[in-house]
Amino acid sequence: MNKTKLYKQEILDARKKSLASFSDMNYRLESVVVKDEVEWINDSKATDLESTYYSLSLFKEPIIWIVESSDLKKDYSIFERLARYQIKTIICYGDYETNIKYSLGGIVDNYMHKSSLQEAVLFANEFKRRNNVVLFSPACPSKSPFSNYKERGAYFSQLVKELK
User: Fold this and answer.
1) Does 20 map to a domain?
2) What's the DSSP call for residue 83?
3) What is the pLDDT of residues 107-118, one digit of tens each?
4) CA distance 51 to 153
5) Residue 76 within a domain
6) Per-residue pLDDT tens over the stretch 42-60
7) Parallel, antiparallel, or unpaired for β 63-68 and 38-42?
8) 131 occurs within a structural domain
9) Number of domains within the chain
10) What is the model's pLDDT at position 19?
11) pLDDT, tens digit, for every residue of 70-91?
12) Does the structure show a pLDDT above 80 at 150?
């Protein structure tokens, strides 16, 4: 088995292990599509920093991380190592917030704020490069207009599938 296939199998095994620990496996490290050699991952179920950290740490490819802004005061310093070596772009969407920006914005190659998930997905699509992973891992509970992570995840998947 070559290194690429072995690595992909490791990722699949890690996803299965992660998914097995949840009663509902939808929207937890779910591969939506591979398009233009970019994999789009739906991790809407990652509603806290620890589960998002776990998800981000699984990938060796450069990551475009789509994260939702939060009203809660959070310590994003746990992401510093990942921001230095794996996360290339952070796209924060929702209400403007500075906690993520000031914690990680100066470490990653690119930081962008968008007002909606739709704008974040469109920007990620414009900014992606071959062999990137676009990981939607919000690191917070769902907010309006979504009543829960399932609605948010379904909307993300729909947006990605509609990309040209």
Assistant:
1) no
2) H
3) 999 999 999 999
4) 15
5) yes
6) 999 999 999 999 999 999 9
7) unpaired
8) yes
9) 1
10) 56
11) 888 889 999 999 999 999 999 9
12) yes
| CA diameter of the chain | 47
Q: Name which residue leads in pLDDT, 11 or 149.
A: 149
- CATH number for position 138: 3.90.190.20
* Beta carbons within 10 angstroms of residue 36's beta carbon: 12
Q: Are 153 and 26 in contact (CB under 8 A)?
A: yes
Query: Exposed (0-12), middle (13-18) or buried (19+): which is 121, by Cβ within 10 Å?
Result: buried
Of 96 and 67, the structure prediction assigns the larger pLDDT to 67
Can you tell me whether residue 40 is helix, strand or coil? strand
- In a domain, residue 14? The reply is no
CB 159 within 8 Å of CB 117: yes
Question: Where do the DSSP E strands lie in the chain?
Answer: 30-35, 38-42, 63-68, 87-93, 110-114, 133-136
Find out whether 61 and 87 touch, Cβ atoms under 8 Å: no
For residues 53 and 82, the answer to whether their CB atoms sit within 8 Å is yes
Which range marks the domain in which residue 53 is found? 25-161
C-alpha distance from residue 92 to each of 2, 123, 129, 148, 156 (Å)? 36, 11, 19, 18, 14
Within 10 angstroms of residue 5's Cβ, the number of other Cβ atoms is: 9
Q: Are 142 and 152 in contact (CB under 8 A)?
A: yes
